[in-house]
Amino acid sequence: MAVTLARLAGASMLVAILMATNAQAADPLSGASLYDDVRRYDSFGQHRYGSPGAAKAFDWIAGELSHAGFAVSSQPFTMRRQYDFNAGSLTIDGQAISVVPHWWIPEAFASFTLTAPIVPSGDAPGAFVRLSIPYERGAYLTKERRAALEAAFARRPAAVLLTIDHPSAEIFIYNVDQEEKPWPVPVILVGAKDRAVLEAAETAGRQVTLAIKGSYQRDVPGRNVIGRLDRGKGRAIVVSTPVTSWFTSTCERAPGIAGFLAMARIAREQLTGVDLVFVATAGHEIGHGGMGHFIHAEAPRPAAVAAWMHFGASLACYEWRQEGGRWTTDRVVDTRIRLINRSQSLDELVRRHFRDIKGTHRVGQEGAVGELREVHAAGYANFFGMAGLHPLFHTPADSAAATGPEVLEPVIRAFASAVTELAASKN
User: Fold this and answer.
1) What per-residue confidence (pLDDT) applies to 314?
2) Residue 3 has pLDDT above 60, yes or no
3) Which helix (H) or strand (E) segment is 295 a member of?
4) What CA–CA distance (Å, rounded) separates 100 from 412?
5) Greatest CA span in the chain, whole angstroms?
6) Pairing of strands 71-92, 207-229
7) How many folded domains does the chain comprise?
C-alpha cells in the first residue's frame, strides 16, 4: 500500500519515539538503531558547509565516537570561500515561490532585489531570461549544460532563471569546487513544479521581483572529526564518510553516517585485528575540502592501510513518485543509480559480502567515485564503498522520510561483514 510523505514522516516519528532513544542500547546494526541516527542527523536541519546544522552534526559524531571508545580529535581547516545563503523568493502578481542561487553567485549580487520582466528572446539587458536544461543524473554540471548557460549569458540579462528538469520537479543544485569562477550574472534555480508560473509571466510580459539575501565569507572555518583506536598493530583500516551537503540532505548523507557510527560501535568487539582510523569530513559539496586535508595531514600512509572503507551518498533510499500532487512511496529501495565500488584487489571480497545488495558494480579506477577519487589518487590500493543518487538527491525535499529501517539494515550489515573479514585477515 502506498504511503504519503507526510504520513510516513509522522509514522516514522511515532515508531522512533516508542523505541529506545539510545542507538547503542540495541544492536548497532539493526534497522531501528540505524534509523535513530538518521533521525538525529535530520534534526539538525541544513548541513551546508559552515552552517550551524553542520557544526551540530560534527559535535554529535565526535561524542558518539568518544562513547564508542575512540580517541577523538578535530582537524580544523578553512575553505577559501563560501556563499552564506539566507533566503530567496520570486514574486509574480503577489504569488511568491522559493528560489535558490546556483553557486557561485557574483559577489556584487550576494544580496539584491530586482524587478523586471522575463524576456523570451534576443538581448535582455536589465531583464531576466529563462533556461531549462535536462537533468543528467549526476552531481556536477556537464560541459554541454555549461554551454547552454553561456548562451543565456550572451543575451546580457540581469539574471538567468534556471530550471533543471529533475524528476522530482523540486529545486536541484549541482556540486561546485573552489576553483570555479562566479557566474557573470546570478543564476537562480527555480523548481520545475513552478515552470508554468514563469511561462505565464513571460508570455504576459509581467514584472517579476527577485529577492536574494546572502553574503560571501572568506577563509571559512570547518573541521573533520577523527576517531582513532590504536592497538599498535601497524596495520590500519580507515573508515570515512562526508557530513555536509546543500540542504538537510538526510537520505543523501545520513545512511552513510549511520553506518559509520555503527562500525565504530562494533569496533572494540569485532574489529580487533587492526588499528582503526575513522574520519567524518566536511566541505564535500563545495570542493571535497575535508578529505583532501585529511589525506594530506592526518591519514596513515598508504603502505600502513590494509583497506579504506567509504560510506558515500544515498546508500539506502526509497523510490518515490507523485500522486495527486503529493510524494508517495511503497518503501521499495531505489537501486537505479547505486554504485558498489572497490579496488581490483578487493573485488572478490566485496562481491561475496554484497551479493544480496542490488546495485551497479564498479571496480578499479571506475570505482573511485565521490571522495574515493581522492583516496585512489593518493595511492591507497585497497578501497571499497558505496555511493549513489536517489529521487530527492540535492533537493530541499530530502528528509528522514526518504529512508527507513528495513532498507538501511541490509546495506550496513554488508559493510560490517566485509570489514570484519578484513580486520581478521593477516594480509
Assistant:
1) 97
2) no
3) helix 289-297
4) 34
5) 73
6) antiparallel
7) 2
When pLDDT is averaged across residues 221-229 and rounded to a whole number, the result is 98
CA distance 194 to 197: 5
Q: Tell me the per-residue pLDDT of 263-276, one tens digit each, with 9 for 90 and over.
A: 999 999 999 999 99
Per-residue b or e along 219-257, where b marks 16 or more CB atoms closer than 10 Å to that residue's CB: ebebbbbbbbbeeeeebbbbbbbbbbbbbbbbbbbbbbb
Rounded Cα distance, 120 and 125, in Å: 12
d(Cα 374, Cα 267) in Å, to the nearest integer?
A: 25
Is the Cβ–Cβ distance between 331 and 9 less than 8 Å?
no
148 and 250 share one domain: no
Identify the domain boundary among 195, 218, 241.
Answer: 218
State the pTM of this model. Answer: 0.92
Grid coordinates representing 27 are 544492536
pLDDT at site 8 = 53
**Where a domain ends, among 181, 203, 218?**
218
Q: In 234-357, where do the E strands start and end?
A: 236-242, 275-281, 305-311, 321-323, 326-329, 338-342
Q: Give the Cα separation of 68 and 24 in Å (integer).
A: 9
Q: Does 6 have pLDDT greater than 70? A: no
pLDDT at position 324 is 74
Instruction: Reply yes or no: is the peptide bond before residue 320 cis, omega within 30 of 0.
Output: no
